[in-house]
Amino acid sequence: MSEEEEQEALNPEKLLGVYEGGRNQITGEREGQGENHFPNGDIFKGEYKKGVRNGKGEYAWKDPIAKYIGIYENHKKEGYGVMTYPDGSQYDGNFHDGKRHGDGTYTYPNGDTYVGEWANGKKHGKGTFFIKKENSKYIGVWRAGQIIRGVWQIKDGSYYVGKFEKQRPNIEGRFVMVNGNSVTGAFKEETKTIEVPIEKEKKETEEGQEEEEEQAEPQMRKVEKITLRQFIPTGFSQSTPETIQKDNFIEIIPGELDLPKEEEKKKGEGEEEEGAEEAAEQE
């Protein structure tokens, strides 16, 4: 590599793009208002301090198209901001260390909305998830992106209150009908193994007709099949206005948000949530 080629490779504009704006008169670092055009077409307009993004700013991604308008601290999103993702979804709320953290509202492309608490980029704490198509909602306690306890309010006015697993009612809970009738019970799910016979092979005879190969016993192959979950009632009662009000008052139980050991391990290994959403945030 020639000296000229080496200087070109080390050219800050080639690595960081073209910057126009304020600089510290002593250190020469970016400071105050500035605008940076990156080589990939991204643009940042906002405040700098000690050479990095600090304060109010606007970052626009060219490919994929996305935009963040909000506060930066030491080059990362911090405090209040609005992030619009490539798929059209949008987060309006608080950030910490570059991730969704604190109170915030996430609106999905299909119109679904989550309003509530976040931690480390995931739904975590108390929150409400509105499902637009079904005109229903989940109100409850979320842990690492999943609802674990709360209320599922159904379109017709009935609701389920209890525990959740994998985004659906599970383990134990209670269904309350519109007329106030209440059914308490638990979910049961079984995995059964069934055997299905293998079709006999057919072979052509001398006359050209197909003939099934004779076998002493039909061969079987095993297929695992998960049956539908069943809700097993254990009790019936009549709800009162007081019990209905209590059902919809959600408070976090001490220790409820602690992650199970296997989830803590995944977190330690740097498991990312919703990678497609975060892809645009690589600045």
From TrEMBL:
Q: Where is the composition biased (Basic and acidic residues)?
A: 258-269
Q: Which organism is it from?
A: Streblomastix strix
- Report keywords, A-Z: Repeat
| InterPro entries assigned | MORN
Entries under SUPFAM superfamilies matching the protein: Histone H3 K4-specific methyltransferase SET7/9 N-terminal domain
Q: Where is the composition biased (Acidic residues)?
A: 207-216, 270-283
- Region of interest: Disordered: 1-45, 198-283
Q: Does the keyword Repeat apply?
A: yes
Q: Does the keyword Repeat apply?
A: yes
Q: Which Gene3D superfamilies match?
A: Histone H3 K4-specific methyltransferase SET7/9 N-terminal domain
Pfam families in alphabetical order: MORN (PF02493)
Protein name per the record: Putative radial spoke head 1
Q: Please, which domain of life does this record's source organism belong to?
A: Eukaryota
Enumerate the transmembrane spans. Answer: none
